[in-house]
Design brief:
Length: about 110
């Protein structure tokens, strides 16, 4: 019984450890997958090709393409597409890593 508990706990620990967590600050209100995000600080939890965006009680899960570059980024950068109040996030480059998160092109901003 104890061996099963230890094994189950170890598997759970590995599952949690496989998710990567980052922080990003959005400088302006923007959209992802048609959902509006306010300007502010967000926690990003990346697991495989699913990104969970968390701000307080607001949680949003979106599909994302993860791309690994050759060199590390000095700081986190958010690239936007669109103009005025119809801005969506195109990609996020995670500072201190070689990771770029790419989002689907969004029509009808």
């Amino acid at each position: 019984m104890l061996k099963r508990f230890v094994l189950a706990f170890a598997i759970l620990g590995l599952a949690v450890a496989s998710a990567e967590s980052y922080r990003v600050t959005l400088s302006q209100p923007s959209k992802i997958e048609g959902k509006q995000l306010k300007a502010g600080d967000y926690k990003l939890n990346l697991e495989n090709s699913k990104l969970t965006i968390v701000n307080g009680k607001q949680t949003l899960e979106v599909p994302v393409k993860v791309q690994t570059g050759d060199t590390k980024f000095d700081s986190t950068a958010v690239r936007y597409t669109g103009t005025g109040d119809k801005v969506s996030i195109k990609e996020i480059r995670i500072g201190g890593t070689k990771t770029t998160l790419l989002f689907e092109e969004q029509s009808g901003l």
